[in-house]
Amino acid sequence: MMLTIDTSGALSGLAITNGDRLIAEQQWQSGRRHSEQALPQLDTLCRLVGIAPQQFTHIIVARGPGSWSGIRVGMSIAKGLVLATDATLIGIASLDAMAWALRGTACHAITSLGRGRFAVASYPAALWAPGSIDARNIAQIEPWHDAPIVCDADTAAAVRAIDPAAPIRVVWPRPLDYALLGVEVIAHHDPSTFLCEPIYLGDPVQRS
Questions:
Q1: 203: pLDDT confidence band, cut at 50, 70 and 90?
Q2: Second label for 178, Cα 20 to 30 Å away, from 63, 87, 96, 166?
Q3: Range of 152's domain?
């Protein structure tokens, strides 16, 4: 039994799956209120389907890039559950989950980091593998036309502002996408290589 936690953005989500079979899924607009909403939502979802946390053998968690505070909340919950249940913990990058929606097709995944900076990764059409994610400013976003660009709606607007003809597909991964990618990791990759460290990439806050 697998639990997926995504609190990396303003739209948060949870999924309970058994292999690639979806048992329950929940998404809600959390804004910046991840810390007060995530655990009650998880408790409600488990009660609705009659599953106890001790039944989870794998915990899949979104590790960013995305909301700094949201990522910390999701990863804290995931690591706490692993300590309590001895489940296997697998961290999935949000750009990898975006690209998973187009698996089998070469694509570029982009998400905004704020202040004119973006996280970018490219994926081949061959067997899926995690992308190499780096940060770029708006001037470094290339006019890609060799493959679709997958991104959220806000990032799509920013990319179209510099390249109106960009081949964009607006995608925001569901918790189920993270879960299915977790199944892929378990089947074809070493889960221990999917480190559960947050991907922030943003500039540190400067304090006077």
A1: low
A2: 166
A3: 104-170
